[in-house]
User: Which sequence fits this backbone?
């Protein structure tokens, strides 16, 4: 099997890149993991989220904004090709605050970032009265909220499924159940899988999430990714209760309330704990008291993929030129950027975005 690009990793990140390259006429083979692989795309909260990102690195805020702005076009193209809807809503999202001090501190950070971005950071502050007009179900413990107008939500499982379908429709191959064991390079990359499959390609994109930690060093990357567990809950289907999403809760198109998410440093343990479930339920009820009467029908844990500073990593290997590391913990938010803009970087075209601040060079120790 030969292609212009082999993409190791069949989650939202890898498939978004594959989709973008296929639209440019490139031959692409996606190599997806086996059932034992950790899959952030299948446990995702489904937020398109700009606010809070890039407070220390404005380039990340700008990159997230560019991607969020492109989401409507991305969804329209994907839905037009597949005939399936992604349940995209992009009417803003809330950062809920339970104290005046917390809200004021965050607003100060956002104002500083807004200045660095030249004023392009569309948010507004809602006191409790204004918030209740927008969200009648909000609880009295919520002091106020920040409404960022570029935020939104989408069904992450539908995105994953329809991306895979459209990659195949565009002529790409998606090889499932493959575990990459080795990569060699002569005139081309030769990617060896545990079952004996060998894929040859001119270029290689490592988008394997946590799997990059093992495979990355073989390609010349540091790949300093770590896991962070997030536990989530979903309720029974309910009448309309939440109009806009927050990082505390969002109402999915089918009516259930998705509640999340914990931030736990527990290695590769993606289990659900009583402590985590109780904490999530407590916070959700504080924000939306009506949830105290709702039935929980499902809970799960998933592992985020984080770099040491939380920013994406985009890096070409010096050891094996033509091999690229692409990893982030915001695969949903950045899906349009990876589909529309990142291929120019991979192809080194004049339109290539400047992604130097996201290279592994920032982790070098003098």
Assistant:
């Amino acid at each position: 099997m030969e292609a212009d690009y082999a993409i190791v990793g069949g989650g939202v990140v890898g498939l978004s890149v594959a989709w973008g390259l296929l639209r440019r006429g490139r031959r692409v083979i996606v190599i997806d993991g086996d059932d034992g692989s950790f899959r952030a795309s299948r446990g995702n909260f489904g937020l398109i989220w700009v606010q809070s990102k890039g407070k220390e690195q404005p380039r990340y805020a700008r990159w997230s904004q560019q991607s969020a702005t492109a989401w409507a076009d991305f969804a329209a193209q994907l839905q037009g090709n597949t005939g399936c809807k992604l349940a995209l809503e992009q009417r803003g999202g809330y950062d809920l605050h339970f104290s005046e001090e917390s809200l004021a501190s965050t607003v100060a950070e956002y104002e500083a970032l807004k200045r660095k971005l030249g004023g392009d950071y569309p948010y507004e502050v809602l006191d409790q009265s204004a918030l209740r007009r927008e969200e009648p179900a909000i609880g009295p413990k919520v002091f106020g909220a920040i409404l960022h107008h570029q935020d939104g939500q989408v069904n992450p499982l539908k995105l994953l499924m329809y991306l895979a379908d459209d990659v195949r429709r565009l002529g790409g191959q998606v090889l499932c159940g493959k575990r990459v064991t080795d990569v060699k390079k002569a005139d081309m990359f030769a990617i060896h899988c545990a079952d004996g499959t060998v894929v040859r390609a001119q270029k290689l994109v490592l988008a394997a999430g946590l799997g990059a930690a093992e495979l990355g060093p073989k390609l010349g990357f540091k790949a300093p990714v770590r896991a962070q567990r997030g536990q989530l809950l979903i309720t029974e289907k309910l009448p309309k209760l939440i109009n806009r999403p927050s990082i505390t809760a969002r109402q999915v198109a089918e009516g259930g309330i998705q509640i999340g998410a914990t931030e736990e440093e527990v290695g590769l343990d993606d289990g659900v704990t009583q402590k985590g479930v109780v904490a999530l339920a407590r916070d959700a009820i504080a924000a939306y008291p009506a949830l105290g009467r709702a039935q929980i029908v499902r809970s799960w844990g998933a592992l985020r993929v984080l770099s040491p500073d939380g920013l994406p990593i985009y890096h070409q290997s010096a050891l094996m030129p033509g091999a690229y590391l692409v990893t982030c913990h915001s695969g949903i938010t950045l899906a349009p950027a990876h589909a529309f803009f990142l291929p120019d970087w991979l192809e080194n075209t004049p339109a290539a975005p400047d992604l130097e601040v996201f290279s592994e060079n920032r982790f070098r120790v003098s």
In short: The chain has three domains: 2-65+157-224+309-363, 93-149, 226-306.
